[in-house]
Each structure stands twice: as C-alpha cells, then as structure tokens.
Amino acid sequence: MLTIQKKLTKSFYALLSLPATAVGFCLSTQVAALSWILSTKFNLHIEDVALVWLAGPVSGLIAQPIVGIMSDHNWFMGGRRKPFIMIGGILGAAMLFALPEIGFISSSTGLSIFSVALILSLILDLSINVTFNPARALIADVTTPGIERTKAFSWMQVVSGTFGILAYFISVTFGNLALIYIAAIVVLMFSIFPVIFIEEPRELKTEAINVKAAKSNSSLINTIKLLFPLYGFIVFGLFVVINKIVLSGAWNTIQTAVMYVCIAATLILGVITIWKGKKEPSGHNDFQKILLAHSFSWLGIQSMFVLSYFYVTEKMLPTLDTTNVIADTFSRFFSDAAQTNEQTAGNILSLGFLLLNLVGALLPVLVLEPLSKHYGKLKIYTIAIACMAIGYAMLYVAGTTETIFYLGMFTCGIGWSAVISIVFAIMTEKVKADKMGMYMSLFNFSVVLPAMMTPGISKVLSDAGDSSLLFLILALCLSISFICWLFVSESPIKLVND
User: Fold this and answer.
1) Number of structural domains in the chain
2) Which CATH number belongs to the domain containing residue 36 in this structure?
3) In this structure, which long-range contacts are made by residues 427-430, counting pairs with CB atoms below 8 Å and at least 24 apart in sequence?
4) Which of 216, 355, 365, 495 has its CA 20 to 30 A from that of 51?
C-alpha cells in the first residue's frame, strides 16, 4: 500500500478520484458533443436524439445491478472494483474514437445513421455504467463513514469537475471533434493507471446495526420493495422501451398522457413513503426517500443535458447578434476562424456547461465540505438543490439573453456541485459496507429511470413548439426534489439488508 493511501493525503484523494473523473469527462463530452453531432452532422430530429440518449438509461438498468453485485462478491485481477473500471474504460475509449465515424460505419455496414448512432451510444453508455458504480464504490471501500468519506467524495467532485471544465473549454475553443478524441485518451488513461496504485481491502467491515431489519425470504423481493417510490418511473421506462424499440413508435400518440400519469403515480407513492417514515422511521424508509428525492433531481438534470442544445438554437440564436457572441470569442482567439450558427450554438452551450462545472469543481471542498461539518450534510445539500431550482426558474424567465443564460447555469452549478459529491456521502452512510456495490446500483436506479423520461419531455416540447418550457419543467422537478429532501433524516440510520 502506498504511503499516501495509509495517511489519506490530499494526493491520494486526488488519485482515488481519477477513475470517477474518467467517467465524468466522458459524460461531459457526451453532453457537449452528442446532441450537437447528431443534430448538425447527421440531421437527426429532437425526438430521435432523445431516443439515442435513451440508450444510457436502458444499459444502466441492465448493467448496473449485475456489475454492482458482481463487484461485491468477486475478487480478481487484484481487486473487486478495479477490473470493472479498467474494462469499462477501454470499451468507452473505443466508442469515443468511433463516434465521429458514424457516417463511415453506416455506409460500410448498410445500417442507417440512426441505427449506428443508437448502437454506439448504447455501447458507450454500457461502458460508463460498467465503470461508474465501481469507481464510486471504490472510494467508499477505502474510506470510513463520516468526515473522511465526505472529504473523499468532495475531492472526487473537485477533480472530476475540473476536468469537466477542461472538457467544455476544449469544446468552445477547439471544437467538439477535438474534444471527442482527447476524451478517448483521458478515459483510457484514467481508467487504467490510477487503479494500479490503489490497494483495495480484501474484507469489507460492516458496522454494528441497531435498527430493525425489514425481513424477507427473497433478496429480489426485498430489492423490488426498496424501489417502491420509483414504480411510476419504472412503468414509463417499460412503456418507452416497448414503444420505441419494439413497436417503432406505435404508441406515440399516448406517450405524453402516459408520462403524466406515471409522474402523478410517483408523487402519490412518494407521499405514501414519506407518511410511512413519519409513523415508523427506519434506514429502509430513509433510503427510499433518498431514491425519491434524487430521482426528481436527475429528471431535471438529464433533461437539461439532452435538450438544452435545442433551446439554444431555437430560442437564443434568433435573438442574438451572432457577430458579437461572447462564447465565440474563445474560438476566434484560438482558431481565428468565423463561426457558423451551428458552431455558435455549440459554443454557447459549452460555455454554459463550463460555468456549471466551474462551480461544481470549486464548491465541494471550498464551501460544501466545511459547511457540512458545521450544519450537517443534509441541510447543506437541500439548500444546494433549492439553488438549482432557482437557476432553472431564472433561465425560464429570461434565459434567451446570453448573460442571463450563463448566470443561470452558474447558479445551477451550486446544485450540481452537491448532486455529484455530497449525495454519495449521505447515501453510503445508510447502507452496509459489504453490500456497497449493490446499493450503489440500486441508488443508480434513481438516475437511470428518470433519465428514461427524457423522450416524454422532448415530446412535450415538440408538440408545444416551445423549447423554453424546458426550464419551467426543470424548475418544477428540482422544486419537488427539494421538498422530498426535507423529509430525509440527517441521523446515520443504517439500512439492514437480508
């Protein structure tokens, strides 16, 4: 074991953050480049782009639980998490290299552009899902609950957020194609080399637990019960998969209505979950409330990632003097080339996400971690979510001006900084250490299931013909999340697993 790991130095926290950073850099590249390249280079419609993005949640539903359970119970290649991190990194780098070659692959194989884009996105997201939970579980494995683990996840976000800033800086200065190739190299390096120097514990210690266990004769049944607040999202996810993949869109006419019903059902189940927690507090119930609250956060965040490009092109560009766009000054400075409307839209979006990630990188260690020590992680996290809701509301009201768009994204960055740092410290202190991979996978259901709602939201925007409704929807999602977080217990109640 390296000395820096024994002493848990800042350099070790930085090293420990690199596998998660590889995933974050890959995701930043997707956000900056995927909708852009599919829309501008291959002319896919907004609903087709949303369907390509659907590949991520679908692969997550399949891969995350399998990988989580396997990484809990297997040891090979010197670790339980390391092999999955390396395999996922190699696969992800290969798919990034292939992304700009969609046209060539399509002509060589005879498959349509849409089919090739869907396949590449599916494999790319599969690689992310193979890597993501093991990378986060590795952090929990080598740290103890409390301040040490909070610091580790805060450092994860600082390092990952810094590289996220770099990703958007590369996008806005050198273009998205350059970003894709650089991302492939970063993902490959950060998924392989850091884990060589990190020693995983062969045995994971589980603290004594003093709350009543929810008994069940079947771990599968127990898992299904844990996902109770997300049943509405699960139903819509199944609907989307059947409609889009099996029936080729035959149910499109009822998609919006089904989405509204499923969201309403989720809210009702959420109220029931919260009411049960009031009557009989438990770690089991707290974990369910975390799933509920986080799912509405991610419903807003994923929709922002996928659909913001269309907001910029449809609502911002027509109102801007394209000869005097702030975001274009970076590209003109480095390349001395005039920017097309498509490039300008990509530059505005990338600069907005750069600011989002700038806040996300700086706040966890400089602000969130110190405040969490004094006021509690949950209270600070809830305030951050409220800030994100305010940022989205600002974008809905006045986001068509470039300055307000950047200010809104900067404000949303406060919530983003917490969503990908503190929330993991909160969640991991509610579960058993020897089941960390499995519970990371279950927690990820609160990410992938809401992400599967994105085609429904894209349909709402398409039918309304008004992409500015996007940020109204996002503000409502984060407001619901804020309310749900108010009912989660700050106390370290442990979840008991059969």
Assistant:
1) 1
2) 1.20.1250.20
3) 427/287, 427/290, 428/140, 428/145, 428/149, 429/145, 429/146, 429/149, 429/492, 429/494, 430/283, 430/286, 430/287, 430/290, 430/492, 430/493, 430/494, 430/495
4) 355
